[in-house]
Amino acid sequence: MEVKEGTLLGMGNPLLDISATVKTELLTKHGLKSNDAILTESEDIFNDLTGGYKVDYIAGGATQNSIRVAQWILGRDKATSYFGAVGKDEFSKTLEKKAREAGVNVVYQLVEQPTGRCAVLITGQDRSL
Q1: Does pTM top 0.85 for this prediction?
Q2: Which one, 32, 68, 72, 119, has least CB within 10 Å?
Q3: C-alpha–C-alpha distance, residues 13 and 64, integer Å
């Protein structure tokens, strides 16, 4: 079966995942537990993460993650498309670059709010968000 461009479409809330393997002290500093998830408006955790660790930037968010996996399975560039809203900031540019690198055809609506981000802190086998 031939896979065509635009075979699968996803719409959701895109997030820029900023991921790194970290020391447990970083969790303690920000009041996190292993395998925990919190919501925060604080820039401190992102500053600590990007300032002291080697980070990976990943096009994330539940739907966008699913679209990236489908893109990988389908194996044809732009077999999947995705749209959602992002801020007019540098994070949205990184997010778009990473999604396109995965072969996804992304079209983001630019809005006044900042691009959503998720700090992914990996300690051993655990992941804290």
Answers
A1: yes
A2: 72
A3: 8
The Cα–Cα gap between 119 and 99 comes to: 17
Q: Is the dihedral of CA 7, 8, 11, 17 positive or negative?
A: negative
* CA nearest neighbour of 115 among 37, 23, 46, 25: 46
Bridge pairing between strands 80-87 and 105-111: parallel
Contact 96, 14 (CB under 8 A): no
Q: Give 62-80 pLDDT, tens digit per residue.
A: 999 999 999 999 999 999 9
Distance in angstroms (rounded) separating the CA atoms of residues 90 and 113: 13
Strands (E), 55-125: 56-60, 80-87, 105-111, 116-123
